[in-house]
Amino acid sequence: MRRNYQNIPRYVPHAASGYALNQNESQYPLPERLERAIRDVSLEALSRYPVEELLALKASYADYAGVEPTQLMVGSGSDELLAILSQAILDTEDRVVAPAPDFSMYGIYTQIARGHFTQPDEQGLRYETLIEVIRATEPKLVLISNPNNPTGKMWTLDELSDIATRVPYLVVDEAYIDFTMKDSFVSRLSEYPNVIILRTLSKAFGLANLRIGFMIASEEIIEQIDRFRSPFNVSGLSAAVANVVLRDETYIQESIQFHTAQREKLTELLRPIGEILPSRANFIYVKTDDSEGWASRFLDKGVHVRAFPDGLRVSAGTDEAYALIQQTIEEVNSVENS
Ligand SMILES: Cc1ncc(COP(=O)(O)O)c(C=O)c1O
């Protein structure tokens, strides 16, 4: 085994029974028409390595994202693309910076690629703090989710552009950008050719099980990073199913409308717990000193949420889950008032 391999945390996924509002998955049910269309996906090519399906998927997604297919790489989730790009960009001990808090896998992929990961100690979502850390650390790569996971904070395009001028590579991870349909860095990509954008079908498109993510960058960067991808990294069956969903004209709008309405309901519901941070994603962050306490009370009712040191991240869910959240909050209030 590699020296110090134990320092790399192990991510062990587990199935959540009950209502899973802890993983930011889509809760919008796949419409009947799409289920039917997916059943028609041909199994004829099952014995062949996937090529055609991936070309078709790139063409559809390029159309959706407003870029050229040559500016895309497809991965088994954006997770795999983070792993690939870290291997491609980093030499041993190269430094990587991310805001704090941010997506937990950034540090793990940096370690796997033998890089050195730094996040601000405090006030880690302030632009000025991030700039200070970048000045002090001189990283080769900065990783930023926008909207931020877990808080929903949006970095402005001007802030991201400024960061791009300070470092060799900036990754803007837009896993949740589809929920807002604006402020994607794609509009500035041609001006900042050192920026790499990550997207996924796991969130607004509701296809986490297919494991499909996209890297969007200049043709030159894609050509360079593609050398670090294993040749058939994405299942053709997944690509074919994704293509059916991407070609549907209204599905993504329906999903966004559903999640926006459910996010607004959730905001009202969680207000008694603490300050709600503004979010345009499919989750909200509520500040509380008792995050572990709330998470375990919700879990007693079968609702999974994610606790952080100073708050809870709760994904937009269904009305059934919300009824249980409301019940929990009312029970706590009635004990406090008695
Ligand atoms: C910010 C962010 N980036 C990337 C991912 C990975 O998504 P996937 O590998 O399913 O595309 C997630 C998943 O939760 C995420 O929150």
Automatic annotation (TrEMBL):
Gene Ontology terms: biological process: L-histidine biosynthetic process
Alphabetized UniProt keyword annotations: Amino-acid biosynthesis, Aminotransferase, Histidine biosynthesis, Pyridoxal phosphate, Transferase
CDD domains, per the entry: AAT_like (cd00609)
UniProt-listed SUPFAM superfamilies: PLP-dependent transferases
Domain named Aminotransferase class I/classII large: residues: 21-320
Catalytic activity annotation: L-histidinol phosphate + 2-oxoglutarate = 3-(imidazol-4-yl)-2-oxopropyl phosphate + L-glutamate
Class of the enzyme per the UniProt entry, highest EC level: transferase
A Pfam family this chain is assigned to: Aminotran_1_2
Domain of life: Bacteria
Pathway assigned in UniProt: Amino-acid biosynthesis; L-histidine biosynthesis; L-histidine from 5-phospho-alpha-D-ribose 1-diphosphate: step 7/9
InterPro entries attached to this UniProt entry: Aminotransferase_I/II_large (IPR004839), HistidinolP_aminotransfase (IPR050106), PyrdxlP-dep_Trfase (IPR015424), PyrdxlP-dep_Trfase_major (IPR015421), PyrdxlP-dep_Trfase_small (IPR015422)
Enzyme Commission (EC) number: 2.6.1.9
Single Gene Ontology MF annotation: histidinol-phosphate transaminase activity
Family from the record: Belongs to the class-II pyridoxal-phosphate-dependent aminotransferase family. Histidinol-phosphate aminotransferase subfamily.
Protein name: histidinol-phosphate transaminase
Upper lineage: Bacteria, Bacillati, Bacillota, Bacilli, Bacillales
